[in-house]
Design a protein that fits this description.
The structure holds two protein chains of two kinds. Chain A is an all-alpha fold. Chain A is 70% helix and 0% strand. The chains are: A mainly alpha, B mainly alpha.
Chain lengths: 145, 182
């Protein structure tokens, strides 16, 4: 008496040499596949995939709903942020053209000019008085007087 | 005869890392069961050998997509099943088989049918005459002792459908055994 499994395997036992040849072909293909992928960009990509696969399976997949929810919330925040941006401010790098800002800037510029002008020509009073020595004769006249 | 070893003993992680020794072990473990399964479906020696090779090559290319290493066996047989369906090129005919009703209970264990030496040829004939879906389920049950859930996943069918197919296939086998005894 044989089980169906035993019967099936016994029947096909003769195919094993062919299957060994097939296994060798698969192994050759595997080596060829590895050799082809030895150029450094592909090696880097495969290394990155090898590293990221466990991360993906252990970190992302078990709580994929939470990650999807978080991604959706971030997307929503981004959309709200973009939709509420002040249109006057425009794109970064563009000059500011608001009249209010321009007027304020001009006032500040005027103050700066005034401050710099005052510094460049200091008043007389600020100069220290230097007592110049007088001639001896003048000194004697003053003493006599 | 290759033993049906526990899935965790198989070097699937090492194979994923591209170790040739691991692939060699996996190929040795599954080459004969895969061949038996495929041959009994396509009934052509050369086609079966080609499909075994195609299955292994597809596994080498796509092992990175396998989520659970413990399911390597059922994943591999799933690839082989797909290859067989592509070979037949008549998937709708195969998949749209009428299933009468789902049995309440199903005998577990592939060895509950024992075949006497004089019944061996009759068993093989009967296996060849079964409709492909029933034959597929029965072969997966006999060759690798896959669970009903695993067979459902491999064949892409409902659990009840698998139960039904196995039930009727086994009933046909029992009938054969009983007829020969009387």
């Amino acid at each position: 008496m044989k089980t169906p499994r035993e019967l099936l395997f016994t029947k096909h036992r003769a195919a094993e040499p062919h299957l060994d040849t097939i296994r060798q072909a698969v192994m050759d293909e595997l080596r060829h596949h590895d050799a082809k992928s030895q150029t450094w960009p592909t090696y880097f990509v495969s290394w990155l995939l090898r590293c990221s696969t466990p991360l993906w399976r252990e970190l992302i997949l078990p709580s994929r709903r939470i990650w999807t929810g978080l991604a959706a919330v971030w997307l929503l925040l981004l959309i709200i942020n973009v939709s509420q941006r002040d249109p006057v401010s425009g794109a970064p790098g563009q000059p500011v053209r608001s009249p209010g800002v321009m007027a304020s800037w001009q006032v500040q510029q005027r103050w700066m000019d005034e401050l710099l002008a005052d510094r460049s020509t200091p008043p007389e009073a600020d100069h220290p008085r230097i007592a110049l020595p007088r001639p001896r004769t003048e000194k004697q006249e003053l003493m006599a007087a | 005869m290759p033993e049906v070893s526990a899935p965790e003993q198989l070097p699937v992680a090492q194979a994923r890392a591209g170790e040739p020794a691991a692939w060699d072990t996996l190929c040795r473990r599954y080459q004969l069961p895969l061949y038996v399964f495929i041959f009994e479906l396509v009934r052509d020696e050369q086609a079966a050998q080609d499909l075994v090779q195609e299955t292994f090559l597809a596994a080498v290319r796509h092992l990175g997509g396998l989520r659970e290493d413990a399911k390597f066996g059922s994943w591999l047989f799933g690839i082989a099943h797909q290859k067989c369906i592509q070979r037949w090129r008549r998937p709708t005919e195969v998949l749209l088989e009428e299933i009468p009703e789902t049995p309440d209970e199903l005998e577990t264990g592939p060895d509950d049918v024992l075949i006497r030496r004089e019944d061996e040829a009759a068993f093989m004939n009967l296996l060849a005459q079964l409709p492909p879906p029933q034959r597929t389920a029965l072969l997966l049950h006999f060759v690798e002792d896959f669970s009903l859930e695993e067979i459902a996943r491999i064949t892409g069918t409902e659990l009840g459908t698998v139960k039904s197919r196995l039930h009727y296939a086994k009933r046909a086998l029992r009938k054969l055994v009983l007829e020969r005894e009387t």
